[in-house]
Amino acid sequence: MSVIQQSRAAENYDIFDLSAPHATWKLLREEAPVFHDPASGYWVVTRHADIKAVFDDYQTFSAEIAQAPMTPLCTEAKRIIKEGGFTSGLSARMPPDHTRIRKIAQTAFGPRRFKSIEPKIEAIIDRTLNDVAKLGQFDFFRQVAYPVPALVLFTMMGIPDEDVPKVKEWAVSRALVTWGNLSEEDQVIHAKGMVDYWAYCCALVAARKAEPQDDFPSDLLRAQADGADITDEEIAGVMYSTLFAGHETTTTLMANAVIALMTNRDAWDEIRENPALIPSATEEILRYCPSIVSWRRLAKVDTKIGDVDVPAGANILMIMGSGNRDDAVFPDGERFDIHRANARTHLTFGYGIHFCIGFQLAKMEFGIMLRELTKRFPDMMLTNEQQIDYLRNISFRVPLKVEVDLGLGGAA
Ligand code: HEM
Question: How far is the CA of 249 from the centre of ligand 1 (A)?
């Protein structure tokens, strides 16, 4: 029997508001764990077990809408995107193409590439933290969390330093068109940004084909030359996916982590005294304040999620940020605890066939950042009376700034 419960939290739900969602998500888990939100047309899923089940059943719950614009596009924006000639990246592709392309992409994320990137990550973090140490007080989001993952990823992807600002800008266009709520005028501006971004990925693949280098697109082209079944356009699609997925997410993780640790001082002090806690602290941070709090699927047939009937064609929003605090899996789930034994069963990187391909890179980068921050700036704190605002969209819980004071006394 289908059970749809009444819930005030469900009635007042605003799918784009990520400013302080945890109390609402808790109520939803208790009162209406799967409900239809008439304002957005989405079925919202908040319990850990239900989210995992949806992720796990890729045939019933297709990923094809993972990158669809959340707000329907106007005719002009649609035309620009259509003429841009896109192909899908990875996260919205379906088997068998997804299986084939992902297998090849994974070879370029192997231990060899990670080993070679680690010292480069250390150098980028060292340089960035040396610069901010001179400031004493600054916006951690803008000056540390924003540039570091981009510089790391773009080094790995073979993007020259002078192109970094425009690629970062295009990534914002892509995020806003896909997950935001833009006016028609802005849709046109950002649709052009997405098309430029796609053209850039295609040109980069062509350039590496002509002249291979020691980077990710050249690795994929070498695999192709050795017989791997992947076209140039599919390689550009993987670049397009990865160039976006690989930096905004890690930027947000770093910024959210600083907020969590500055407001849970005991944990910060413990990590500072014992850096061996960094791996378990990283898992708890990923659980407690994930960068991506929700992700989408499309029901292909009439089905059920938990006890609730969901029709074929239903758009589904899984709130991993809520599942990550579900008491059924994480006792006292609203509490931040870097000793939590099962923190790594969080849903922050998704689950199943689309599980995040860059999770090791994200954890490695974050671990180095946490080690260096606790070592160099033990007295860092959030500046007083700071209100932290978050980007308005459905998936990325991004603080707009995180002002910190390094407590260095006198640095200016
Ligand atoms: C804290 C950082 C990160 C978070 C929270 C995150 C989260 C996610 C999530 C939720 C998905 C969708 C999973 C699913 O549908 O089951 C995903 C997929 C993906 N991620 Fe990440 N990610 C992060 C970092 C990265 C990095 C560093 C890279 C690349 C360098 C990356 C590349 C990708 C790609 C290519 C996919 C698509 C995989 C597929 O569809 O097979 N991500 N990520």
Answer: 8
Q: Tell me: pLDDT of 411 over 50.
A: no
Compute, in angstroms, the gap from residue 343 CA to the centroid of ligand 1.
18
Range of the domain at 303: 25-377+386-400
Cβ(323) – ligand 1 distance below 6 Å: no
Position 263, amino acid? T
Q: Which residue is associated with the tokens 């898992």?
A: 283
Query: Which single residue is written with the structure tokens 């079944």?
Result: 229
* Residue 24, pLDDT score: 95
14, part of any domain: no
What does the alpha-carbon distance between residue 326 and residue 249 come to, in Å, rounded to a whole number? 22
Helix (H, G, I), strand (E, B) or coil at 9: helix
- Residue 291 near ligand 1, beta carbon < 6 Å: yes
Residue 245: inside a domain: yes
* Any domain includes 357: yes
Check pocket membership of 355 for ligand 1, CB cut-off 6 A: yes
245 lines ligand 1 (CB under 6 A): yes
The total domain count for the chain is 1
Ligand 1 near 34 CB (within 6 A): no
The enclosing domain of 277 has a CATH number of: 1.10.630.10
Cβ(91) to ligand 1 under 6 A? yes
Among the atoms of ligand 1, which is closest to the Cα of residue 252?
1
Residue 5 banded pLDDT, cuts 50, 70, 90: low
| Atom 41 in ligand 1: residue holding the nearest Cα | 354
Sign of the C-alpha dihedral, residues 65, 69, 72, 75?
Answer: negative
Q: What is the pLDDT of residues 185-220, one digit of tens each?
A: 999 999 999 999 999 999 999 999 999 999 999 999
Q: Which has the closest alpha carbon to 95: 55, 69, 59?
A: 59
